[in-house]
Amino acid sequence: MKLTFHIQRIQIENISVISIIFCINDLDKDKIKIRK
Q: Pick the residue with more confidence: 21 or 29?
């Protein structure tokens, strides 16, 4: 079970939005949780 973690910064209308994306690679390999 591999847990990858990265942060994307998106700038929209002078508002910086930080979206934290958790990607869990399991045997099924595709499980994605997205928090904004």
A: 21
